[in-house]
Design goal:
The longest helix has 13 residues. The protein is globular, with a radius of gyration of 14 Å. Helices cover 33% and strands 19% of the residues. It has one domain. It is built from 5 helices and 5 strands, in the order ααββααββαβ. The strands form 2 sheets. It has a 3-stranded antiparallel β-sheet with strand order 4-3-5, with no helix packed on it. Strands 1-2 form a two-stranded antiparallel sheet. It is an alpha+beta fold. The chain binds iron/sulfur cluster (2 copies).
Length: 118
């Protein structure tokens, strides 16, 4: 794991911005929900590997490109009810999940300042 905090698959990063690989594949603007993002309950999954036929080596390259297993790579500030901004990657797991679910239901509810590493 490269980053300090482990990824809990909340999906927040991919709800608000496409990674570089998705940007290239979908030719979409960077900000917004990635079309490859899938949810099973509150657990997210990157569906990019299902969209293209990949051999084992290509599969490994894609996993590296999306930062799989590297921890929570998001650089984002989320504004709490108290009006303060909190660094997303350091929030408790359940808060991350709650914010991701809120982002799905009410995309305008959160003010997010965001810069993604991957
Ligand atoms: S990691 Fe997967 S779901 Fe997330 S933005 Fe990239 S391609 Fe989309
Ligand atoms: S925001 Fe962080 S914890 Fe949530 S899915 Fe993205 S990398 Fe994982």
């Amino acid at each position: 794991m490269i980053f300090q905090n482990k990824c809990n698959d909340c999906g927040f990063c991919c709800l608000i911005q496409l990674c570089k690989l998705a940007e290239r594949i979908f030719s979409l603007p960077r900000n917004g929900r990635c079309p490859a993002l899938e949810f099973e309950g509150t657990k997210s999954r990157c569906g990019i590997v299902d969209l293209v036929k990949l051999d084992e080596r290509e599969h490994a390259i894609v996993l590296r490109q999306i930062g799989a297993g590297e921890g929570c790579s998001i650089e984002a500030m989320a504004r709490g009810r108290d009006g303060n901004f909190y660094e997303f990657q350091f929030l408790p797991d359940q808060t991350k999940i709650d914010l991701a679910q809120l982002q799905i239901k009410e995309p305008a509810a959160l003010t997010v300042l965001y810069r993604r590493k991957k």
